[in-house]
Amino acid sequence: MSADTQKQISGLAAIDHIRDGMKVGLGTGSTAAWFVKAIADEVKAGMKLTLVSTSNQTTHLAHSLGLEIRDINDVGKLDLCVDGADEIGEGLALIKGGGGALLREKLIWEMADRCIVIADAAKHVATLGQFALPIEVEPFAYKGTINRITDVLSEFDIAKMPILRKKSGEAFVTDGGNLIFDVACGAIHDPSGLASALKATTGVVDHGLFLDLADIALIGTDEGVKVFY
Ligand code: 5RP
C-alpha cells in the first residue's frame, strides 16, 4: 500500500469519531486533506458541524469543497481536532510543522477537548528527531534569536545549526508572518526539556514539539488502521 493510501485510510478512520453538532478543528497537510474531503462528504449528506481551520491552505481546500470555516474566536472551545504529524513517538509525542502551520495548529489543538493524529506508517518512530524540528521565529532580529536557539540546542547535546526554510528560493513565511528554521536534531532524548527551553527563548514564537496534546493516533498501515492511545 502506498503512503498516500495509508494517509487516506487514516483520514477516513477519523470520521468515526465525528458526531452531529460537533465543533471540529481541521488540520493541515496531505493526510489532513483526506479528512477534510471526508468531512465535506458528511456535511453534504446532512451532518451539521462547526469547523475551524489550522491554516490558509486548509481554509482554501475547505472552501473549494463548499465548507464554511468559522473564526476560532467566535467558536471557542472545540470538541475535536484532527491533524497529521511528521513524527509520532512514544506517548504520542509529536513533531509537527513540516507544512509550516505549527503555530496555528498548536493554537487550535489547545482549544480542543480531544485531538486525533492521523498519519501513514512511516511517521511512527521509536525516538523523535529524524525529521528536522521546525522552529517558528519572529523575523525581527532573527539572527540574535538563532544564536540563542543554538545555545539552547547545545545544552541538549544537539550540535546542529537551525536552517532557514525556503520556498522557491525565498524565505518561507508562515500564515502569521514568521520565519521557520528547521533543526536536524537527530535523536531528541529529552523532548519535554527541549520544548520548555525553546518556548522560553526570546524570539521563538513556537516549535514543532507537540507533547501531551494528542489523545489518539490512527495510523494507516498495510494491515489497516492501527489505533494508539
Ligand atoms: C503541517 C503539519 C502536517 O500535519 C505534517 O507536516 C504532516 O503532513 P502530511 O500529512 O502531508 O505528511 O504539521 O504543519
UniProtKB/TrEMBL annotation:
<feature type="binding site">
    <location>
        <begin position="28"/>
        <end position="31"/>
    </location>
    <ligand>
        <name>substrate</name>
    </ligand>
</feature>
<dbReference type="InterPro" id="IPR037171">
    <property type="entry name" value="NagB/RpiA_transferase-like"/>
</dbReference>
<dbReference type="InterPro" id="IPR020672">
    <property type="entry name" value="Ribose5P_isomerase_typA_subgr"/>
</dbReference>
<comment type="pathway">
    <text>Carbohydrate degradation; pentose phosphate pathway; D-ribose 5-phosphate from D-ribulose 5-phosphate (non-oxidative stage): step 1/1.</text>
</comment>
<keyword id="KW-0413">Isomerase</keyword>
<feature type="binding site">
    <location>
        <begin position="83"/>
        <end position="86"/>
    </location>
    <ligand>
        <name>substrate</name>
    </ligand>
</feature>
<feature type="active site" description="Proton acceptor">
    <location>
        <position position="105"/>
    </location>
</feature>
<feature type="binding site">
    <location>
        <position position="123"/>
    </location>
    <ligand>
        <name>substrate</name>
    </ligand>
</feature>
<comment type="subunit">
    <text>Homodimer.</text>
</comment>
<comment type="similarity">
    <text>Belongs to the ribose 5-phosphate isomerase family.</text>
</comment>
<dbReference type="Pfam" id="PF06026">
    <property type="entry name" value="Rib_5-P_isom_A"/>
</dbReference>
<protein>
    <recommendedName>
        <fullName>Ribose-5-phosphate isomerase A</fullName>
        <ecNumber>5.3.1.6</ecNumber>
    </recommendedName>
</protein>
<dbReference type="GO" id="GO:0004751">
    <property type="term" value="F:ribose-5-phosphate isomerase activity"/>
</dbReference>
<comment type="function">
    <text>Catalyzes the reversible conversion of ribose-5-phosphate to ribulose 5-phosphate.</text>
</comment>
<dbReference type="InterPro" id="IPR004788">
    <property type="entry name" value="Ribose5P_isomerase_type_A"/>
</dbReference>
<feature type="binding site">
    <location>
        <begin position="96"/>
        <end position="99"/>
    </location>
    <ligand>
        <name>substrate</name>
    </ligand>
</feature>
